[in-house]
């Protein structure tokens, strides 16, 4: 079992000060009607010390002497302790489609058993650990398989898969040798598929993402549609298949052109300042280098 210690109330008794608290108002599960409490992370107080932003738009938070290392992402998913329905918190009130709720109810035991194959003995009824948080995200990934297209489930599965990969890498760091690094690679490939499918569905008007208010992928900044396009490219570059080299080069060439058009690379751009533009330039250069090594120029 992999668990990291949690901050508790009462610094005077030798325990760490609290990282989270339980919200006064209960959440009502739309699937089974069970009411349960929402665990919320305290703001400020040195709990979140922002570190580097990775090329996957993941914000690394540095550990502090007072609170240790915290994982803000693990509190972004709610999970009903009765029927194991896990969703982004907003969807506990937004999703009202009866067919979706029926499907979620019917799959309750099946998804619990599936999650336990990777995260045995997880617990969603206590203060959340990194381990339990990762399990809750996997439950959510399975739940959104059953959610109607009106609620943009493909995008949500993309973001959840990417966050799961990050959390599994964190688990590998704190408890190496349990194959969480391998599991992270599986979720990276799922994220790649779902991000690219999101673009296909949106372009083909199969599934709109207009209802999504925050595209993340992390919690410190909303990178919007630009983030989806960038992540589709960077995940393809880092985790895409390599068995068919000609297909890989074709897809990289397409993303190189798309990123150049979107971010105006090679020109000054005041509309897209900040880290995303810089990361897009780095991705463009890396893709261009690989294409050039294979004598492919691409069309920008």
- Sketch the topology as an H/E string, one letter per element: EEEEEEEEHHHHHHHHH
Mean pLDDT: 90
Number of helices, counting only DSSP H or I runs of 4 residues or more: 9
Q: Helix content range of the residues, please?
A: 40-55%
Radius of gyration: 20 Å
Question: Could you describe the largest sheet, including whether it forms a barrel?
Answer: 2 strands, antiparallel
Q: Give the low-confidence spans.
A: 1-13
Q: Per DSSP, what share of the residues sits in E-state strands of 2 or more residues?
A: 5-15%
- What's the shape? globular
Q: Structural class of the helix and strand makeup? A: mainly alpha
The rounded distance between the terminal residues' Cα atoms is 50 Å
Number of strands: 8
Q: Could you give the order of strands across the largest sheet? A: 1-4
């Amino acid at each position: 079992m992999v668990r990291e210690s949690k901050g508790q109330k009462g610094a005077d008794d030798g325990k760490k000060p609290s990282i989270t608290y339980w919200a006064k108002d209960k959440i009502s599960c739309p699937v089974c009607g069970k009411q349960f409490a929402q665990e919320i992370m305290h703001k400020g107080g040195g709990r979140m010390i922002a570190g580097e932003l990775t090329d996957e738009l993941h914000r690394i938070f540095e550990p502090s002497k007072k609170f240790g290392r915290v994982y803000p992402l693990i509190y972004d998913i709610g999970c009903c302790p009765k029927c194991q329905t896990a969703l982004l918190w907003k969807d506990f009130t937004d999703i009202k489609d009866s067919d979706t709720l029926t499907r979620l109810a019917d799959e309750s035991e099946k998804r619990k058993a599936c999650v336990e194959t990777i995260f045995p003995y997880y617990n969603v009824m206590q203060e959340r650990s990194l381990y339990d948080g990762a399990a809750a995200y996997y439950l959510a990934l399975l739940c959104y398989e059953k959610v109607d297209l009106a609620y943009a489930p493909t995008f949500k599965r993309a973001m959840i898969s990417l966050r799961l990969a990050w959390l599994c890498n964190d688990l590998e760091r704190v408890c190496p040798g349990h194959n969480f690094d391998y599991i992270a690679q599986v979720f990276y490939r799922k994220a790649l598929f779902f991000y690219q499918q999101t673009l296909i569905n949106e372009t083909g008007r199969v599934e709109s993402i207009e209802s999504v208010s925050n595209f993340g992928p992390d919690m410190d900044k909303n990178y919007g549609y630009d983030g989806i396009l960038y992540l589709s490219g960077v995940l393809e570059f880092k985790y895409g298949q390599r068995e068919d080299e000609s297909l890989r080069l074709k897809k990289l060439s397409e993303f190189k052109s798309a990123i150049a058009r979107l971010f105006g690379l090679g020109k000054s751009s005041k509309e897209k300042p900040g880290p995303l533009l810089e990361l897009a330039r780095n991705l463009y250069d890396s893709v261009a280098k690989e294409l050039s090594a294979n004598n492919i120029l691409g069309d920008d």
